[in-house]
Amino acid sequence: MPKESLNRRPRRVLGLVCAAALLLSSAACTAGAAAGRPTPPGDPLGPVPKPLAPCGWWYGIGEPPTPRDMAFAAEHYSLVVLNATETAALHRLKQLNPKIKVLVYKDFSSARNYPGAVEGEADAPLLPTGIGYFKAHRENPHWFAVDTKDNRIEWVVYPKHWQMTVWDPTYQKAWSEAVTAEVVAQGWDGVFADNDFSSLRYYSSAVLKGTADAAESDRVIREGMDTFLTTAGDALHKAGKMLIPNVSESHLTAGRWTAHSRYDGAMEENFGLRDTGTGELLTFKGNEWKELRSQAALGETWLLLITHTKGAREERVGYATAALLASPHTCWSGATTRDYRDPDWSKYQDAELGEATETANRLPSGVWDRRFTGGYVAVNPTGKSARVTPPPGLVNVDGGAAAPTTIELASGDAVILVNPAGPTPTATTPATTTTTTTTTTQPGTTTTTTTTDPTTTTTEPTTTTTTATTEPTTTTTSSPSPTP
């Protein structure tokens, strides 16, 4: 989504979780991969890296990061995205943690002329885009997309963002050359490219000149982005730099996620969405889930995942689903604001799941689960509740109660269980039915410092019980998240 970097209303940065839970014979989740396409560190004939479960990244495109932000990021994150103007922060992060990957935010699809992107009648020296508004206006006005009445197309929800001809090879080449030169000159590890989208409808109802309708306009944009990605990715890789696009609506087109993550990975900005009508999780629909799992299994490229968390259910589902995809470069964030104005840190990042002991399993009920040395996760992406039988002796991260023998998992929900903290108490408790409850986090609650592990109880029930992890239902849509 277009993040209004260099905006008159800067936003706070977002902290994400990158504790990549590894799959199969993949490399450890670290930001220390070589520049360009991430490769497994160390001797390829050496011991198989342990599959440590879930890692983190920081989408730091809000206001300039503070020294405290940078110290926290250097210690906790494997990858950080910053605005082009934050070169001082880039170098500071590299000083604090030489292994951290720091990418620059660039938009594929727009030129912008709001204050900050332009200075008077000139483009700013460091842009949130690849091509400056005035450069295009004066030298290549045909790079501005126009509608059937020859009017330039301004994105309705993002004023002063202008749709460009992403299908034009000359625009693609100019963007790629300009961005690559800047990345090399400033020392970025690569590019986070926003708005690799397949439809204009979220930004404008305009129909492109030369097309019959909105569907044909979208096809032109979608096919244009396919070739644009190749032009940009090849240019950056020749310079030893990374490319990670923000791919939208990949669940609608089979193979799109795989194709667009082929350089260094991709971002899913609407991860773990719940279908409004059925209660099912959209991430598991279509071909996207298969493609995400395939990428995670290879363990060579980054999966950057964001779940917009209106409450505890979204946070729990997002993290648990990311754990199902745990790999050397799987990173998750639970964003509590849709515009990312605040840094976020989830209690699940401190859950200490440990090492994955198996790949994710699909149970006959449709539930997916996975075991770790330090715990267990299960996700129910279906429209009906289902029962799961977790390993014995675990406690629920939500509330700390001992997990019962059988858990009733609500539609579109998840459970995260971990080993008890400390030695098991010797005291016994009466054999009673135990219900594990889930505490809902208030929307908008944020944490800017490291959190402590939740206090847990370790006394197990002596009878089989059933636990419901239901909450008030919240529904979401798959449309791009708006920014102010």
TrEMBL record:
Secreted is among the record's keywords: no
Region (Disordered): 421-484
Top-rank taxon: Bacteria
Keyword Flavoprotein: no
Keyword terms: Hydrolase, Signal
Residues annotated as signal peptide: 1-33
Family matches, as PROSITE patterns: PROKAR_LIPOPROTEIN
Pfam families, sorted: GHL15
Ranges of compositional bias, category Low complexity: 424-484
GO-annotated molecular function: hydrolase activity
Official protein name in the record: Putative glycosyl hydrolase-like family 15 (GHL15) protein
